[in-house]
Write a structure and sequence with these properties.
Helices cover 40% and strands 21% of the residues. By secondary structure, it is α/β, with parallel strands linked by helices. Strands 2-1-3-6-5-4 form a 6-stranded mixed sheet, with helices on both faces.
């Protein structure tokens, strides 16, 4: 059974049609290549916390989407508000995903320190913030991908042990 996923790209310029979304397709391809995932929703919104939160709540509260990946809006720019919008809608934090991405990204660039990405759970949906660059989004996906199937199975109520 494939986990149903959605991708939310957050970009003022993208929402205005001034920039083509390159990161969304990169993450969609990564999910599909990894196997076990099917992308059932894609949206591009501006760096507006209310719009971000509304999109996240809409997908999470449907009850049939296991994973939402956001792209962009995680840095220090004044309009980078994806972490705040995500934190406003999650019910339980799941910081290990964002921590692991920062840890591994620091091996590539010191700029990983300015990532404010968060991850957490709303209902039965895991939300993870990703960086906006296609290269960084792909690299970060590869960091978390091995843990996603087990995490999503657990979130869906799988009672089996972790097998460690």
């Amino acid at each position: 059974m494939k986990h149903r996923c959605a991708i939310l790209t957050i970009s003022d310029r993208g929402a205005r049609g001034e920039r083509k979304d390159l990161s969304g397709p990169v993450l969609k391809a990564a999910l599909e290549e990894h196997g076990g995932f099917v992308v059932v929703g894609e949206e591009l919104v501006s760096d507006d916390p209310d719009g971000i939160s509304k999109a996240l709540v809409g997908w999470c509260d449907r009850g049939d989407i296991a994973l939402v990946l956001t792209i962009g809006g995680t840095g220090f720019s004044p309009r980078d508000l994806a972490p705040e919008a995500t934190a406003a809608v999650i019910e339980r934090p799941a910081p290990g995903f964002a921590e692991a991405m920062r840890h591994e990204s620091l091996k590539i660039t010191p700029h990983a320190m300015i990532s404010r990405a968060v991850s957490g759970i709303r209902g039965s949906t895991l939300i993870i913030n990703f960086p906006g660059s296609p290269k960084a989004a792909r690299e970060c996906f590869e960091v978390v991908a091995p843990a996603l199937p087990h995490a999503l199975d657990k979130l869906a109520g799988d009672p089996s042990d972790c097998g460690r």
